[in-house]
C-alpha cells in the first residue's frame, strides 16, 4: 500500500503539471470559431467502433479504465 | 450547449475477434489460449424533448474458448463456449441555461457463470461559453458468480485451504473528466478514476501447479487465490488536433497503478484523413507495457507457502502492440433515404475497422468491427404550413 499511495501522489502531480502547461497554452475561442473543433473526429471520446477492442484489452491486460469503458463488473475470465 | 435535435440515432456494431496464445490460465498458466468471439451491439438514442434523451444499448457476445474448455479436462464440454447478454439504459437531462447535464444509468450483464448489475449517476458542468467542462461520475457494479472449480477439486475437495469464501464481487468507480478547448484546432481531456473492488477477485477455475508438479496430466495443487480487495487508479490524457481541413490527429495516453502491484502505460495515435467528400481512412497504432502483479508467477512456479497466487498471464509482465486501419463512408446527405411509417430514415454512415494485436510474449489476435448508423426523424407535415 505505501507504493500505491506514492504512485497515486506522483500521478496527481504529473497530471497537474500536464494540464497546467496545457492551460497556459490555451487561447479563448468564440463559439463561432469552433468549426474545426466540431468535426466528428475531434470528439474527445473513443469511437464506438473501438468498443469491442477496449473490451478485449480490459480482459487481456491488467490495466483498465479512464478510456470511457467500465472499470469493474462482469467476468473477463475467458 | 444546444438543444436536442429531433433525431433518433440508431447505431449497429458487429465484431469478430480471434486470438491464440500459450499461457492459458485454466491450465495453470501454460497451454492454449485459442478463442473466437462474435459480438453484436445496438445502441439507440431517443430525444424525449429539447432537454432530455434516453439511450438504450443491447448487446450479445458468443465465444468459444479452448482454455475454459479445459476446466473439465475433456474437450468440447459445456465450458467450451458461452453467450453473454448485456444491456443498459441511460437517461440524460440537460439544463441549457445553466450549462449542466445530469445522467443516470442502469445496466445488466448475464452469462452462464456471472450475473452482473450496475447503476451510476453523472453530472457535467460547462463554463467559459462551453470551452471547459467537468464531468463527475459514480458507478457501482455487483457481480454474482456461480463458482465452477476445475474437475479435480469438485471430485476431491480442496484440502487445507477450502473453497473460495465468497461468490460476490462489488466494484465502486468514481471518475472525473476535465475537458477544454486549447485553441481553434486543438482540444484535450484529462480523466482520473478511482476504483475499489472487493469480494471475489480471483477466477475459480484457474489452476495453480506448485514447483515440482509440472505435469498437466496430473491434478493441480490448488486454484487461483487473490486478495479480496483491489484499488485501481487510471489516469488518461486525450488530445485531438486538426491541423487542416482534411486531417485529424487523435492521441491518447494512459497510466495505471493498482494495489496488487500492476503498473501499466499505454500510448495510441490515430490519423483520420478525409479522402474526398465521403470517405475517411483512419490508420492507428497503440503500444502498452505492463509490470505484473506481485502474486503472479508462471506454470509450476508457486509454492504452498504463499497466501495468494495466480498464473493468469493477464497479470504478468509483458508488452502489447496494436495496429490497424479504419475506413468510413459517410456522404453528407447519407447513403440512402426512405420513408417508413411517417418517419424519414437516413442511412448515415458505414465503417469498417480491423486491428492486429500482439502480446509479447505469447499471444496474437485479430479484431474486425463493422459499424453502421441511421438517423430517424419525423416526416415534415404540410398541414400547418402556409404553403
Overview in brief:
The complex is a heterodimer of chains A (78) and B (387). With 78 residues, chain A is mostly helical.
Structural features, described:
The complex is a heterodimer of chains A (78) and B (387). With 78 residues, chain A is mainly α. Chain A contains 2 helices and no strands. Chain A is flat and about 45 Å long. The model of chain A has no long low-confidence stretch (mean pLDDT 77). Chain B is an all-beta fold and 387 residues long. Helices cover 2% and strands 61% of the residues of chain B. Chain B has one helix spanning 151-156; strands at residues 7-21, 35-47, 52-65, 81-95, 100-110, 114-127, 132-145, 168-183, 186-199, 207-208, 222-223, 229-244, 247-258, 263-275, 279-291, 318-329, 336-340, 343-360, 363-378. In chain B, the strands form 2 sheets. Chain B has a 16-stranded antiparallel barrel. A two-stranded antiparallel ribbon of chain B has the order 10-11. In chain B, strand 12 (229-244) and strand 13 form a beta hairpin. Chain B is elongated. The model of chain B has no long low-confidence stretch (mean pLDDT 92). At the A-B interface, helix 1 and helix 2 of A face strand 1, strand 2, strand 4, strand 6 and strand 7 of B.
Keywords:
heterodimer, A: 78 residues, mainly alpha, 0% strand, flat, B: 387 residues, mainly beta, 16-stranded antiparallel beta barrel, two-stranded antiparallel sheet, 19 strands, 2% helix, 61% strand
Secondary structure: elements and pairs:
The complex is a heterodimer of chains A (78) and B (387).
Chain A lengths: L1 H23 L26 H10 L18
Chain B lengths: L6 E15 L13 E13 L4 E14 L15 E15 L4 E11 L3 E14 L4 E14 L5 H6 L11 E16 L2 E14 L7 E2 L13 E2 L5 E16 L2 E12 L4 E13 L3 E13 L26 E12 L6 E5 L2 E18 L2 E16 L9
Antiparallel strand pairs in B: 1-2, 1-19, 2-3, 3-4, 4-5, 5-6, 6-7, 7-8, 8-9, 9-12, 10-11, 12-13, 13-14, 14-15, 15-16, 16-18, 17-18, 18-19
Amino acid at each position: 500500500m505505501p507504493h500505491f499511495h506514492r504512485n497515486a501522489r506522483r500521478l496527481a502531480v504529473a497530471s497537474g503539471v500536464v494540464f497546467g502547461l496545457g492551460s497556459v497554452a490555451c487561447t479563448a475561442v468564440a463559439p463561432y470559431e469552433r468549426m474545426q473543433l466540431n468535426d466528428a473526429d475531434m470528439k474527445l471520446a473513443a469511437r464506438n467502433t473501438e468498443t469491442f477492442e477496449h473490451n478485449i484489452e480490459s480482459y487481456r491486460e491488467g490495466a483498465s479504465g479512464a478510456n470511457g469503458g467500465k472499470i469493474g463488473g462482469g467476468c473477463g475470465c475467458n | 450547449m444546444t438543444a436536442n435535435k429531433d433525431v433518433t440515432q440508431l447505431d449497429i456494431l458487429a465484431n469478430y475477434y480471434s486470438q491464440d496464445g500459450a499461457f492459458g490460465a485454466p491450465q495453470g498458466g501454460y497451454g492454449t489460449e485459442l478463442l473466437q468471439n462474435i459480438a453484436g451491439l445496438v445502441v439507440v438514442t431517443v430525444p424525449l424533448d429539447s432537454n432530455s434523451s434516453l439511450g438504450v444499448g443491447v448487446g450479445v457476445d458468443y465465444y468459444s474458448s479452448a482454455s475454459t474448455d479445459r476446466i473439465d479436462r475433456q474437450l468440447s464440454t459445456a465450458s467450451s463456449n458461452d453467450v453473454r447478454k448485456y444491456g443498459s439504459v441511460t437517461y440524460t437531462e440537460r439544463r441549457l441555461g445553466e450549462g449542466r447535464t445530469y445522467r443516470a444509468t442502469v445496466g445488466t450483464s448475464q452469462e452462464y457463470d456471472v450475473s452482473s448489475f450496475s447503476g451510476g449517476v453523472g453530472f457535467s458542468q460547462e463554463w467559459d461559453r462551453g470551452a471547459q467542462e467537468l464531468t463527475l461520475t459514480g458507478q457501482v457494479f455487483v457481480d454474482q458468480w456461480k463458482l465452477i472449480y476445475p474437475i479435480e477439486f469438485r471430485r476431491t475437495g480442496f484440502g487445507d485451504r477450502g473453497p473460495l469464501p465468497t461468490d460476490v464481487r462489488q466494484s465502486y468507480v468514481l471518475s472525473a473528466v476535465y475537458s477544454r478547448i486549447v485553441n481553434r484546432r486543438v482540444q484535450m481531456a484529462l480523466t482520473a478514476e478511482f476504483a475499489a473492488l472487493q469480494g471475489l477477485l480471483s477466477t475459480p477455475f484457474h489452476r495453480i501447479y506448485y514447483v515440482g508438479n509440472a505435469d498437466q496430466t496430473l491434478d493441480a495443487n490448488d486454484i487461483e487465490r487473490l486478495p479480496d480487495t483491489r484499488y485501481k487508479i487510471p489516469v488518461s490524457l486525450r488530445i485531438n488536433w486538426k491541423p487542416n481541413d482534411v486531417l485529424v490527429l487523435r492521441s491518447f495516453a494512459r497510466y495505471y497503478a493498482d494495489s496488487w502491484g500492476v503498473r501499466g502505460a499505454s500510448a495510441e495515435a490515430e490519423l483520420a484523413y478525409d479522402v474526398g467528400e465521403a470517405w475517411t481512412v483512419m490508420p492507428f497504432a497503440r503500444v502498452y507495457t505492463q509490470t505484473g502483479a506481485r502474486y503472479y508467477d508462471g506454470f509450476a512456479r508457486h509454492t504452498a507457502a504463499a497466501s495468494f497466487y495466480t498464473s493468469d498471464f493477464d497479470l504478468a509482465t509483458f508488452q502489447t502492440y496494436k495496429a490497424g486501419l479504419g475506413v468510413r463512408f459517410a456522404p453528407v446527405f447519407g447513403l440512402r433515404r426512405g420513408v417508413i411509417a411517417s418517419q424519414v430514415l437516413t442511412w448515415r454512415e458505414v465503417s469498417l475497422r480491423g486491428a492486429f494485436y500482439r502480446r509479447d510474449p505469447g499471444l496474437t489476435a485479430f479484431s474486425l468491427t463493422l459499424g453502421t448508423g441511421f438517423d430517424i426523424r419525423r416526416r415534415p407535415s404540410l398541414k400547418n404550413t402556409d404553403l
